[in-house]
Amino acid sequence: MGVLSPDAFEQRLRAIGAARYHDRHPFHRALHDGKLNRLQVQAWALNRYYYQASIPRKDATLLARLPTAELRREWRRRLEDHDGSEPGTGGIARWLKLTDGLGLSRRYVESLRGLLPTTQFAVDAYVHFVGERSILEAIASSLTELFSPSIISERVSGMLRHYDFISEETLAYFKPRLTQAPRDSDFALTYVKEHARTAGEQDAAAAALEFKCAVLWSQLDALQHAYVEGHPPPGVFLGADTAEAFA
């Protein structure tokens, strides 16, 4: 494949999301359509916590490598979005309110004791990818945010409609993401289109986005296998008794 124009390259990237984003996964569909029980929703929130809590580590790794103050200022906002400007603020704190609302011990959630092994392996692979690959690939891997606003709107409305143990306060994490994700993805998309100038660079950026889609998809694969198909690995979260034993 030869070098694509910036607009054609953008369409290539968007086609990856259309084919590979995790909104197509059966666990995702079941979550939004009200087909999961409380334990399954708890397991999703518990495992997703590790992903959310690792995003600032990923962004700090990239921030240290960015060559200009302009780029560092832009990327620094992502750290504050997730870590907050003071205790009790930011995306991680809001995610803990979600797990609180689902009845999970905060100490248990933060301990990471109940994680599925695939969750940890996939998330750690993403952090390592961003630290080890080119800046172009690292930024391109964040472009799943192009596809997140629609999934967030669907998630909030579906979970509020279908689960009586979910409230708007429980889902407070998601509202700021409706503005943060488009802002971040607009910047990342502009950067990738400007800096992927050769066919090889465009291929590398596209592969980075495919990798990130696989990171998200594999986490749902693990949840499906453990909590829907009934094959939980040893030591993972199995309900209130597991969490209370640690708390």
Automatic annotation (TrEMBL):
GO BP annotation list: pyrroloquinoline quinone biosynthetic process
Keyword Oxidoreductase belongs to the record: yes
Keyword annotations from UniProtKB, A to Z: Oxidoreductase, PQQ biosynthesis
Keyword Nucleotide-binding: no
EC numbers: 1.3.3.11
Taxonomic superkingdom: Bacteria
Record-annotated Thiaminase-2/PQQC domain positions: 11-221
Family matches, as InterPro entries: Haem_Oase-like_multi-hlx, PqqC, PqqC-like, Thiaminase-2/PQQC
GO molecular function, one term: pyrroloquinoline-quinone synthase activity
Coiled coil regions, renumbered to chain: none
Gene3D superfamilies referenced in this protein's UniProt entry, alphabetically: Heme oxygenase-like (1.20.910.10)
Recorded catalytic activity of this chain's protein: 6-(2-amino-2-carboxyethyl)-7,8-dioxo-1,2,3,4,7,8-hexahydroquinoline-2,4-dicarboxylate + 3 O2 = pyrroloquinoline quinone + 2 H2O2 + 2 H2O + H(+)
Pathway noted in the entry: Cofactor biosynthesis; pyrroloquinoline quinone biosynthesis
Family: Belongs to the PqqC family.
Function comment: Ring cyclization and eight-electron oxidation of 3a-(2-amino-2-carboxyethyl)-4,5-dioxo-4,5,6,7,8,9-hexahydroquinoline-7,9-dicarboxylic-acid to PQQ.
Protein name per UniProt: Pyrroloquinoline-quinone synthase
